[in-house]
From TrEMBL:
Gene3D superfamilies: Porin
Domain of life: Bacteria
Cross-referenced InterPro entries: Gram_neg_porin_domain, Porin_dom_sf
Statement: the UniProt record of this protein carries the keyword Signal: yes
Keywords, comma-separated and alphabetical: Signal
Name of the molecule in the record: Porin
Entry keyword annotation includes Cytoplasm: no
Annotated signal peptide: 1-22
Domain Porin: 7-331
Amino acid sequence: MKKILIATSALVAVAVAGQAQASEKIKLSVGGYMEQWAGIASQDDAYDNINAFQSDTEVYFSGSTTLDNGIEIGAMIQLEGETSTDQIDEQYLYVNGSFGQFRIGEGDGAAAAMGITAPAVGPVGVNDGDLSNWVSVAAMPDTVWDDGDAPKVTYYTPVLGGFRVGVSYTDSSTAKNNGSAGVSASPATAGQNTTTGMPVVSLGVEYNGDFDGFSLGLSAVGEHKGSGEWFSVGTNVGFGNFTVGASYGVKADDYGLTETDAKRADDTTGFDIGVAYKMDAASVSLSYANGDIVTNAAGAGSDIDTVDLGLAYALGAGVDWKTSLFWFDSDGKNGGADNDGYGAVTGIKLSF
């Protein structure tokens, strides 16, 4: 696999270097978003309340240039507005052309980027992990997992007849890319670490088509690494002002066990289903998800149901007011804790 990646990178570099350079250097533009939320929640007395105010902010720096041969080269850098760890969320270089797109750097794998889930417009979706910002749950229902933003190479094919394929490869070694000049930095502190153990291969196939009166989106995605694998299928169908969708995912993890171990944990499974309606500046959605979640080799975890009623209203260009009314019921298994409750969250999202 490494030889293939080296050869592919060399071909792209030769194709780019063999053409005249663009007349001006790349200039970065600024974008991103800011989300500020306020909410209340009721849950079991055994759990303390979580902060009633939550926020999420990222600033994007991006820029590109088109060479005389028509090939576009660009960069994306995403800066976290608040974090206690890595200040940079994603950063990668991309090359676009008639051959498709290559990316190298840190970002989502192809599977996570191409996965489709049920539609939701509120700030607390049933399948995006935000419920844990407001109540105490051991794990969230999920149908599209991701190994993270470790350094990787990704390739997306051109769109052919509505179909597109994407594949990502993350090596198993440790990056050493930000030590001082001439100094070999320690793997524990230098750069952004990749996965330990086996490499990660991420694959996705998607279809998007518009027909007379309706649209259709389909995805089949998955990843494999040394400790296990996951796969997911999803669909969204749009007709008139409505969008309906659903997804299903399975995640298997060996937790260090072998095939000869007497007790092995079951797979984690999840599904969601939802409907959204948009009329002018207003949107509303109703979605449901269930997750049968396993968190360790002993089979501990939870069986969790969540429901979210989402509301969104565009107050102006790049200014959206969003609200969620949610309910959840998490039943622990094999040592996992129970919790259930409900809540409401509202706030503003700025896109710039």
